[in-house]
Amino acid sequence: MQKIGVLTSGGDAPGLNACIRAVVRAGHYHGLEVVGIKRGFKGLIEREFEPLTPRDVSLIINRGGTVLLSAREPRFKEHEFRKKAAENIRKEGIDCLFVIGGNGSFQGANLLTKEFGIPVIGIPKTIDNDTYGTEYTIGFDTAVNNAVDAIDKIRDTSMSHERVFVVEVMGRDSGFIALAASIATGADVALIPEYPFPMHVIVDTVVDALKRGKRFSIVVVAEGVASAREIAGILDEKLKPFDFGGVRYSVLGYIQRGGSPTAYDRIIASRFGVFAVEQFVNGKTDIMVALENGKVVAKPLEISFGRIKKPDLTDFELNNILTI
Ligand code: ATP
After folding, report:
1. Residue ID of nearest Cα to ligand 1 atom 11
2. Domain 3-139+261-304 classified CATH 3.10.20.30?
3. pLDDT tens digits for 47-97?
4. Is residue 176 within 6 Å of ligand 1 at its C-beta?
C-alpha cells in the first residue's frame, strides 16, 4: 500500500484544516495510507509523524488554525537538516509529501525533490493571496471577511463622531486584503504597495470627500505601505483647518488570520486537497495546485518562486470610482 504524508508550514490560515481533511479522506478513498507530520518541516526533521484515518479529521472543517500545528523552521534552509528530513521520509515509507504552505515552504519542498528525489505536491495557502501562479490561496476569503466585519464596526464610530479612521490591515508586502476590504466596505482610500501614490494625494482625497459633504471617511492601509499610526498622524496635521471629529486609527492585526473559515475557503481547500491527491494517484508530482480561471489546475512548483503577483488594476480603479 502506498503512503502519503501531509504537513502545514508557514503562517496559519483559515481553511488549513479543511484541506488536511480533504487530503486525508481523498487519500483513503484512493486506498492510500496517510501520515500527518506535526509542526511543518520541524516535524520532518524530528520525525513527529502520526497516522491519520478519515475519522481523525472529523469535526475540523469548520475550525481555524491547523490541527497539525505549523512552524517556521530556519534549519530547513541547511542541506544537513533537509538530508535528515529526507531520511525520515524514506524510513517512514512516505511516497509523496503534501506541503500546504506558502512560497517559502514550496522552496523547501522543491529542494527535497531536487536534492533527494522525494516526490512533493504543494497546496497554496496564505491569507495574503500573494502566491504567484494561482488566483487564490486558502485563507484569503476568511481574512477579507474578518477585516470587513471589523471595518463595518469601526465605521459606526467613524460616522457617529464624524471622524476619519485609518485602518491597517495585514498582507505583508501585498495589498490584496486591503483592496478587497476597501471595495467591500466602501472605504474612501485604499493604500496598497502595488499602486502607490504620494501622501498629498491621500490628503486631497480625504479633504475632497469632506468638501463634498462626507462627514466621515475610512482609509484602509496595507501593512506593507506604512503604519496606520503614521498615516493618521500626517492626516491629523493636514486636516486641522477642517471642522470634523478628528482622525483615529486602528490596527486590525491577528484577528484577521483566525476564526472559522468561510464557506468559500472550505470549498476551495477541499477542492485543492482532493485534486492534489488525484495528481499523485495519476503519477504527477513536483507540482503545485493552483486556481486558474476558476478551475483547479496543476502548475510547476517553481512557478511561484521569485515572482510578484499584483492585484487587478481594474479593482483599484473601481475603488476610486465608487468613492465619488
Ligand atoms: P507564509 O505565506 O505564511 O509566509 P511560507 O511557506 O512562505 O508561508 P516561510 O516562513 O517563508 O512561509 O517558509 C516556511 C518554512 O519553509 C521556513 O520556516 C523554512 O523551514 C522553509 N523554507 C522557506 N524558504 C526556504 C528555502 N529557500 N529553502 C529551504 N527551506 C525554506
Report:
1. 104
2. no
3. 999 999 999 999 999 999 999 999 999 999 999 999 999 999 999 999 999
4. no
Q: What does the pLDDT look like over 205-256, one tens digit per residue?
A: 888 888 888 888 999 999 999 999 999 999 999 988 888 889 999 999 999 9
Q: How far is CA 81 from CA 47, 75, 108, 112, 175, in A?
A: 12, 6, 11, 11, 34
pLDDT tens per residue across span 262-294: 999 999 999 999 999 999 999 999 999 999 999
Cell of 234: 500626517
Taking CA atoms only, the protein residue closest to ligand 1 atom 10 is 10
**For the whole model, what pTM was predicted?**
0.97
Domain ranges of the chain: 3-139+261-304, 141-257
Are residues 97 and 70 in contact, defined by beta-carbon separation less than 8 angstroms? no
Question: Is 141-257 the same fold as 3-139+261-304?
Answer: yes
Ligand 1 atom at minimal distance to the Cα of residue 12: 3
141-257 homologous superfamily: Phosphofructokinase domain (3.40.50.460)
- Max CA-CA distance within the chain? 75
Q: 47: how many CB neighbours lie within 10 A of its CB?
A: 15
- Report the catalytic residues: 128
Q: Determine the average pLDDT of the residues in 127-145.
A: 97
73 CA from centroid of ligand 1 (Å): 8
